[in-house]
Amino acid sequence: MTKTLKFPVLAVCCLVAISAAVSCTNETRSYYVSPSGSDDADGLSEAASLQTLAEAKARVAEAKRKGYEGAVEVIVGAGTYYLDEPLVFTPAESGNPDAPYTIRAAEEGQVWLSGGVPLNLHWTEHVGGVWKADVEPAIERIGALYLDDRTLVRARYPNRQNGVYPYGGYAADALAPERIARWHNPAGGYIHAMHSGRWGGMHYRITGKNTDGTLAYEGGWQNNRPSPMHPSQRMVENIREELDAPGEWFFDADSNALYYMPEQGRLPNDLTFVASRLESVVELKGTAETPVTDIRFEGLSFAHTEPTFMDTREQLMRSDWSIYRMGAVLLAGTERCAVRNGTFRQLGGNAVFVSDYNRDAVVADNLIEDIGGSAIAFVGSADAVRSPSFRYEEFVPAAQMDTVVGPQREDYPADCIAQGNLIRYIGTIEKQVAGVQIQLAARIQVLHNTIYHVPRAGINIGDGAWGGHLLAHNDVFETVLETGDHGAFNSWGRDRFWHPDRAVMDSLVARHPEWILLDAVETTVIRDNRFRCDHGWDIDLDDGSSNYAIYNNLCLNGGLKLREGFYRKVYNNILVNNGFHPHVWFENSGDVFRNNVVMAAHQPIGIKHWGDTVDYNHFVSEADLRKSQDSGIESHADWGDPKFADPAAADFTLAGDAKAIAGGFKNFDMKNFGVTAGRLKQLADKPEIPPLLLADTNQLAKEEAWLGGRVKPVETLGEQSAAGLGDIKGVVLVAVPEGSLLAASGLKEGDVVLAVDGLDVNTVVELRKAEAANRWKQRLELSVWRNQGRQEVVLSLE
Q: Is residue 8 predicted with pLDDT exceeding 70?
């Protein structure tokens, strides 16, 4: 059973002198910190405040060493505190449930803990609009440079363009020989490239030039499904010769000189620059045997950490992920510790990393934005896993399999909560990231978070070990913006029982069905969420994901996918403008898909067995129902207008007389998604609500925008004759502007689209539904009528 955290209200007995040796546990000792304080003061009042958090921490540690057992609070005054080293808390500094140790802002949002160092610079004009300053005292490197509320752009090619994905712009010629020849000494530069399948990104450090003029570099270990670089989606940075755009910078470590091209109207000597210095700001470091307990951080803001993408290399149990166990806040070996009401901004890597043994950790009501890595990660140790395999293609032979259920050690997060966080604009550097990442963990609750504008999944579960998670009331949208073949929610389940070879898998499951739940011990529940993914699935259960209950979810665009796995019960969901994508199911999977409202025909791939039940669903189109019934399923399904209350206002409640209600569908709350804290609700965006694709025919016959062009159905004899068609059918491309996706794939004005990925299309609604069903592939295979004949055209969506 999941534990519920209860934080008692503590009475403040008095302020006690630091020399006190022993105290009652209902006492609270307060220390004050402010930028104007002095570390020679006693810190026991605002008038005698300390200047640094490190000194306050030392005073608390000394009091505890002398036997003080009461509660402690460190009250931090407004200002920015630049740390020389991370604040590392050990088990000896722990609080306890009745006397916690709290570090809090005197004014929420006004206290910044910085992992950077402000630079004292004197700028002089250099050449070509670039200014130069010597950095004193000398520093070894600058991984990130911060100005105001922005992370500045390192000199790069191509130049950054807002709204261009991935990387804010990319170029196939980023590594062209003629470009490399321009670089005098590229050592210390970086290559950022997408995975060839767009399954995240990879990063390389340039070490110099080879004798043949090509680049020498190392890296690429950031993705656990290795591949060559994407042939075009790549960029380079930290190259001096590419400093040619306002806002770019370059640091020459050899001469200790910083170069910067200011934006128009801004003089560098009027600005304050902060260079990254630390990878983390706060670290709690204990063990399962001796944990750090009952330390809380409240109302603090964290900024200016070092990018860590080259350290992201630890493989994660056959998922596609590699990780680096670090964040601005690191919890490792803790019990009942919390990070609340904070802000995480301008970070080079992860925000909060909950690593290995942790129990009852809380990450709640934080704003997390503009960071290079993931927002919140709960990741256990591989040492806790029985019969571990670390790569997709690896497998422990059956004869050597440890078949004891569950973990073998306690080095993993359990009974932890990520609640009420606003997470946006993450993965600015790394692309295999998530708003909330869960792997090798148990009973993690992900509740009332709003997550959007992310390069990959909003929420990701990397394996089935050990399940029991609850994902509820989250609002997740603008996802998979820079990658592909993924979901707003994504999971893998490459647990002990799973094998990448289908024949071996079938044989193992037939002989050992009990192995399916060796790791996925407890059911993971996904309910009462709102998801939207425009480049994949709204809910994507991939590669063996097993033991899930999925209900009461509103899916706004990408539909729901269940790939090979077992014991998934999916019911009472609404799949707007899309439907159900079952892929390569196993015999006797036990899967259930029933009483859902779907707006497209089922899209099976490699299905020979239909699990326990695929029936009783409600379709909005008779044609979609009949097509699905052709597979021998849905004998009790129905179709008709779902009678949504007010879809334009995001209310998809069904009317009481809707057929789906009579068939067993039950309405669920449409107003309880996302963050609940007042300050975060004011900041949070809402997902775009798509126009509904309800009609089987396009009765108005008007032209509509599509992928940068304009289309309409072929409806008249004149249009049939003009195209040379034998029948009135298809959708004609009325306008194909230069620069559109249509034009880039070779389509022309007057082409008639007859089918998309084998699905006939005769209306714009059918065209859009076919696109939605196949967009996850990042391409559409079109059958096009052109010049009196049928042609096949691949339409790239990248």
A: no
Report helix, strand or coil for 502: helix
How many C-beta neighbours within 10 Å does residue 302 have?
Answer: 29
pLDDT tens per residue across span 314-335: 999 999 999 999 999 999 999 9
Compute the Cα dihedral for 297, 299, 305, 310 and give only its sign.
Answer: positive
How many residues make up the chain in this entry?
A: 798
Contact of 271 with 122, CB cutoff 8 Å = no
| Pairing between β-strand 752-756 and β-strand 779-786 as defined by DSSP bridges | antiparallel
Chain-wide mean pLDDT for the chain?
93
- The better pLDDT of the pair 699, 484 is held by 484
Number of Cβ atoms within 10 Å of the Cβ of 36: 8
Cβ neighbour number for residue 403 with a 10 Å cutoff: 13
Q: Is 228 exposed, middle or buried (0-12, 13-18, 19+ CB in 10 A)?
A: exposed
**Nearest C-alpha neighbor of 777 from the set 570, 561, 477:** 561
Q: Is 543 helix (H, G, I), strand (E, B) or coil?
A: coil
Amino acid identity at 350: N
Name the band, by pLDDT with cuts 50, 70 and 90, for residue 722.
low
* 3-class state of residue 785 by DSSP: strand
pLDDT value of position 25: 58
* CB-CB contact of 769 with 757 (8 Å): no
Higher confidence at residue 700 or residue 368? 368
Output Rg (C-alpha) for the chain, integer angstroms: 28
Contact (Cβ atoms closer than 8 angstroms) between residue 249 and residue 208:
no
pLDDT of residue 695: 62
What are the tens digits of pLDDT across the range 71-82? 999 999 999 999
Cα 604 from Cα 625, distance rounded (Å): 14
Nearest partner of 421 among 345, 468, 474, 472, judged by Cα: 474
Rounded distance between C-alpha atoms, residue 381 and residue 287, angstroms: 12
Spatial CA neighbour of 462 closest among 406, 348, 541, 386: 541
Residues 81 and 73: their CA atoms lie apart, in Å, by: 18
- Token representation of residue 14: 């008095």
Question: From the centroid of its chain, how far is CA 106?
Answer: 32
